[in-house]
Amino acid sequence: MGPTINSEGLKERTKRFALMVIRLCRIVQPSQEGRIITRQLLRSATSVAANYRAVCRSRSRPDFISKLGIVPEESDESFFWLELLADSGVLQPDKVHPLLNEANELGVDFRCLSANG
To answer: Which of 12, 28, 84, 115 has the fewest Cβ atoms within 10 angstroms?
Structure first.
């Protein structure tokens, strides 16, 4: 499937989300729980961007749908780890809140794309 009008914007948006998470993880104080949570968060947040890029390179409609289904799952997982950072007191909620919103919005947007795909 070729790129759509929105695909470049979504590539940039998912990359920006990954970069914002990377920057957030850099400010987490060293602790066992901080390392564990940020490692998981880094994996899921960067996976949102990487898997969306894979969606853009899909070779068929079934391949597109299959790959697209991974993106909201990774976004939801990112939301969970972000929520855990705030709820556990590892980070102040105000540091995490903008990323929680973006993770949630990305998940909703990609679920809508999957449903219409």
So the answer is: 115
